[in-house]
Amino acid sequence: MPAQVDLILRGGTILTLDRDLRVLEDRAIAIDGGRILDIFDPRAKQYAARQEIDTANCILMPGLINAHSHLPMTYFRGLADDLPLETWLRDYIWPLEAKLMKHEFIGQAALHGAAEMIKNGITQVQDMYFDMPAIAAACSQAGLRAIIGEAVLEGNGSAEQARPALGEKVLELRQSFAADPLLDFNLAPHSIYACSEKTLVQVAKVAAEHGILLHMHLAETRGEVRDCLKEHGLKPVHYLQKVGILELPAVYAHGVWTDPDEIGLMAANPASVAICSDSNLKLASGILPLAEYQRQGVNLCFATDGVASNNNLDLLAEIDLTAKLHKALNSDPAFLPAARAVQMATLDAAKALGVADRRGSLEPGKDADICVLSLAGLECQPVYNPYSHVVYTLGAKQVRDVVIAGEIVLRQGRLAKVDEAELVETAKSWKQRILKELG
Ligand SMILES: [Zn+2]
Fold first, then answer.
1. Ligand 1 centroid from CA 276, angstroms
2. How far is the C-alpha of 240 from the C-alpha of 234, rounded, in Å?
3. What are the distances in angstroms from CA 200 to CA 99, 208, 210, 250?
4. Distance 86 CA to ligand 1 centre (A)
5. Which residue range forms the structural domain that includes residue 43?
6. What is the domain count for the chain?
7. Spacing, Cα 70 to ligand 1 middle (Å)
8. What is the CA(190)–ligand 1 centre distance, in A?
9. Based on the domain organization, do 71 and 58 belong to the same domain?
10. 179-222 per-position pLDDT tens digit
């Protein structure tokens, strides 16, 4: 009698992203209890599966990990484009957020974002926003794995009133959502410019005490570095060292305006950088010194940032763009080869989030978070190198199936847990309310 398992994905090209970066053909993946039980040769071995997906003519890879986003900003897509970051934030985003920060708005916009991420092959996100319970419920409903951090910033009460209770809040949320294996919570001090020194010191203390991962914007613009020097007499990374954050495991979004000296400090600490090329280009923030980060050995991964500054959640496009941009900048077509870029989007991102023992590669024992890319279209054939395909040829359009924690959340391009047509209608109705708020 063959052993019974929950799900089998049969056939295709498997990018394991394991230690030897093995690429397997004509195998099957047996999934049980949310984890990968076995990757086997179906001619030699059998399992009885409750469900099965034929993945012949597909690439199977670890689900993409989006290391920095703001899920509820999906409803701000295209609302205020072609503006400087400062104007964009102060005249549009922050006033709107002040008026709309209600449970209903955040919940619905986050659900839209979570569903959209799944359609882009993303299986885990690290998100920073407000109202963590609303975002958690949305991710859970869509079936998206998430680490959610409440943005801590001065002026809206999140820093001043909550400062001593920051850690307890994270622990409470972990406890109240403990039944959902998809969810985790962390601490997200927004940025150097949005938090006081006192707040950053407190956040560092709390994170160290409870072993909580930190998630923060860093050195996104030139102005931010200038202000940091003016106010604190230090460059951003040195300032983070002073307040006690740098020595703690953290994911820094952007990291555009860091110099080699700061990058060296980051390399000597448990710091990862989430590259947001699309957002940085659109807001003309700049281009991060990727070659220098690599040279000094800083862990790197990719992120979409929020939809308001991107304007999509297409992580595959993000990888493609980043690889080409830095090849050109370094005048070297061999810079950031495709297999390396895929590794950054999966295993290195899992390392950044402190979950590489559970995710980031397809191996027995790891969580069954899998992205299945179709090779059926004209634009996908022929295939000589599957890594090259993932980075330069395939896009969100080819994301066919997505499995998260062993559950099929996207099947043949259709969301399994939420009604896409309903999400589209809800987004349209929010547009009217948002325009009214803007006056
Ligand atoms: Zn951001």
1. 9
2. 9
3. 26, 12, 15, 13
4. 13
5. 3-62+368-414
6. 2
7. 6
8. 8
9. no
10. 999 999 999 999 999 999 999 999 999 999 999 999 999 999 99
Span from the CA of 69 to the centroid of ligand 1 (angstroms)? 6
Distance 195 CA to ligand 1 centre (A): 15
Instruction: Say whether both 389 and 404 belong to one domain.
Output: yes
Please name which of 76, 133, 142 lies closest in space to residue 114, comparing C-alpha atoms: 142
190 with 289, same domain? yes
Residue 364 backbone phi and psi in degrees, to 5: -55, 135
Write out pLDDT tens, residues 359-402. 999 999 999 999 999 999 999 999 999 999 999 999 999 999 99
* pTM, two decimal places: 0.96
CA of residue 246 to ligand 1 center, whole Å: 19
Q: Which two structure tokens, joined as six digits, stand for 255?
A: 């990291």
- Separation of CA 242 and ligand 1 centre (Å): 23
| 211 C-alpha to ligand 1 centroid (Å) | 23
Question: Of 274, 101, 115, which Cα lies nearest the Cα of 188?
Answer: 274
Q: Does any domain span residue 439?
A: no
The DSSP secondary-structure symbol of 286 reads: -
Cα of 217 vs centre of ligand 1, distance in Å, is 6
pLDDT exceeds cutoff 70 at 162: no
Do residues 113 and 217 both lie within one domain?
yes
Residues 7 and 110 in one domain: no
DSSP string, 134-187: HHHHHHHHHT-EEEEEEEE-TTSSTTTTTGGGHHHHHHHHHHHTTT-TTEEEEE
Q: Is residue 74 domain-shared with residue 19, that is, in the same domain?
A: no
Same domain, 83 and 138: yes
Does the bond joining 311 to the residue before it have cis omega, within 30 degrees of 0? yes
Query: In terms of domains, do 342 and 405 share one?
Result: no
Which structure tokens are listed for 258?
């860091």
Tokens linked to 219: 């050195």
